[in-house]
Design a protein that fits this description.
Residues 39-85 form the F-box domain. The chain is α/β, with parallel strands linked by helices. 34% of the residues lie in helices and 15% in strands. It contains 15 helices and 14 strands. The protein has helices spanning 3-9, 47-55, 59-66, 70-75, 94-100, 115-120, 142-151, 170-179, 196-205, 222-225, 244-251, 269-278, 291-299, 319-324, 338-346; strands spanning 19-23, 37-41, 84-86, 109-113, 131-135, 157-160, 185-189, 193-194, 211-215, 219-220, 233-235, 259-261, 284-286, 311-313.
């Protein structure tokens, strides 16, 4: 907030020397009468206007403006202003969380940075929280993740990464499954092992789970993943020690699997070929930086010709052409602009 705005707003409610000057509107465009001005005191602004003003401010500016008067302090706590909270640029300790608690009753989406912030989130008392996203949480523990799940049973999305969570074990994953039955998206990075019991708990309790991303993990029970029949998008990028023959058999039977990412893994050519040929629902398989697949392609360019209209994204395929084929409005002349067009579409400015 600028120094001038802060100085104007810190004046008392009874000070009549700080009006907002609003030009009056002519009765008709043809009216040549001079435009006059009328004074409107800032405390007489409609509540909706003030709330809209608060929604355009950063958290520090919002706090400064809320200290102007009692009325604006009350409006600054309107639930509609606190449905989403991004604390990544701020240190969120227990004291900060307690101070924000009375404003976070309607909080739905939360982003934070660091394991200390993750431990403080429980003090927000945001029982209806639906999305949690934390990064820089290298030191997050089973206890912290389990408490997050227990205190926020309405969670639909839980994403912790991309820093490795080496202190997280299968116990915490099972606890998440037991507490958050409405979970639809789960993303964890750098977990050393996610055993079959944890994966089966997700399959049994989270029946609407559509997205799973276990990135750069040490070991995962690939057979148990075949029991998560609700899954649509599965990413195991950077995960090693997978038994690919078992994985191909289990995953090809998943009835709803649309997208699979095995980039930066030791995926075998036989497993990828089987997934492309056997899976009835699979539409796209991403296999970037997979040495075994690239070596197989160099020896036999037709190794993965059994794609059956499925999209294989790899370094030896035309990535831009493949992705552009998903979008009907992308022509051959602008295939390499697909990512720019995709971004514009997300902003409501591109193709629809």
């Amino acid at each position: 907030m600028s120094r001038r705005v802060r100085r104007r707003t810190n004046l008392s409610d009874g000070d009549d020397k700080c009006p907002i000057i609003l030009p009056s509107v002519s009765a008709s465009p043809e009216d040549d009468a001079p435009v006059t001005s009328s004074s409107v005191h800032w405390t007489s602004l409609p509540d909706d206007t003030v709330v809209q003003l608060f929604s355009c401010l950063s958290y520090p500016d919002r706090a400064s403006l809320s200290s102007t008067c009692r009325s604006w302090h009350h409006l600054s706590a309107s639930p509609c202003l606190w449905t989403s909270l991004d604390l990544r640029a701020h240190r969120c300790g227990p004291e900060t969380a307690v101070a924000l608690a009375n404003r976070c009753v309607a909080l739905r989406r939360l982003r934070f940075r660091g394991a200390d912030s993750a431990a403080s989130v429980i003090h927000l008392h945001a029982r209806d929280l639906r999305e949690i996203s934390g990064d820089g949480c290298r030191d997050i523990t089973d206890a912290t993740l389990s408490v997050l799940a227990a205190r926020h049973e309405a969670l639909e999305s839980l994403q912790i990464g991309p820093d490795p969570c080496e202190r997280i074990t299968s116990d915490a994953v099972r606890h998440v499954a037991l507490c958050c039955s409405g979970l639809r998206r789960l993303r964890l990075s750098g977990v050393r092992e996610i055993d079959g019991n944890a994966v089966n708990a997700l399959a049994r309790h989270c029946t609407g789970l559509e997205e799973i991303a276990f990135i750069d993990c040490g070991a995962i029970d690939e057979t148990a993943l075949g029991n998560v029949t609700s899954i649509r998008f599965l990413s195991l990028a950077g995960t090693r020690s997978l038994k690919w023959s078992s994985a191909a058999v289990s995953w090809s039977k998943l009835p709803n699997l649309v997208g699979l990412d095995v980039s930066r893994t030791d995926a075998s050519p036989g497993a990828v070929s089987r997934l492309l040929s056997s899976s009835k629902s699979l539409k796209a398989l991403c296999a970037l930086n997979c040495a075994a697949l690239e070596e197989e392609w160099n020896h036999n360019a037709s190794a993965f010709s059994n794609k059956k209209d499925k999209l294989l994204v790899a370094l030896f395929t035309d990535v831009f052409k493949g992705i552009a084929s998903i979008f009907a409005d992308i022509t051959a002349s602008n295939e390499r602009a697909v990512f720019r067009e995709w971004r514009l579409d997300d902003q409501g400015q591109g193709f629809g």
